[in-house]
Amino acid sequence: MKLSKLAKRNIISVGPGDSFDKAICLMEEHHIHHLPVMNDGNLVGMLSDRDLLMAVGWKLEVDRTVDSSEPSVVGPTEIQEIMSKPALYLAPDNEAHTAIRMMVEGKFHAFPLIHGGILVGMVTSTDILSGYCDKGHNPTVHSRLQERVGDRMRVNVRTVGLREPLHVAARILREEHIRHLPVTSDDKLLGIISDRDIRRACGEETIEDDKAQARGEFYIGATSVIQVMSKKVETISEDATLIEANRKMVDRQVSCLPVTRDDRLVGILTDSDLLRLIAQIDEEDEHRQA
Prior knowledge:
Blueprint: H1 20-30, E1 34-39, E2 42-48, H2 49-56, E3 65-66, E4 72-73, H3 96-106, E5 110-115, E6 118-124, H4 125-133, H5 139-144, H6 166-176, E7 180-185, E8 188-194, H7 195-214, H8 242-252, E9 256-261, E10 264-270, H9 271-289
Antiparallel strand pairs: 1-2, 3-4, 5-6, 7-8, 9-10
Helix pairs in contact: 2-7, 3-9, 4-8, 4-9
């Protein structure tokens, strides 16, 4: 399937000199995680919510202002200071499985689409998952996604406890090349901690520490998993189908689903797992039709 069939045409962008406040407000208003950075009609970078979380903990300038006779904002302020550059992009006529492979292998979640030097669209991992929920896009993929979650889930799941130090969770995520860690006690699922949670905690600590130093004070941020984890977790059962899991991820805007049996963790399914399967099936289907 061509990316042009999955991409969004209504593109929201920012400039390199725009403020973090503008980017945060745009992301929240439009429920998006990525913004192409444009300068004089040219794509010069990409900005993600992860960049903003790590840089300033998702704090607006009003919350990063040091109270003094001459108020000043701590931390970076312009998008060009933290954007990813150069921006990787694809063409509208590239196949979906090409984008998926690049997303999974390079841990990218969005690609601008360039045609004739002009930005004509954006495609995200969510756009791809959403597109393949529709039987009309690729009946073969839709049929294969009728498999049970229990047959595709990962069962050797790394977990952490409530009182685990935050740096331990961060180390596991980094070493295992994963983005989510279920929080458990005796196999009972209590919550989940993601790389976004840790990035937000790190960003907040940096900003609050700078503000405290400007006032001659000390700041101690979150130190354990329980302080930053998400307690409300979307889960799924082993007997659900992959298409049901796909739709749930898209509708609830989550990128992983712990698989539970009687509130106990038995596995996990992520958007990367689904994307890999979709890429494999889509590529095989393309070769059959060639």
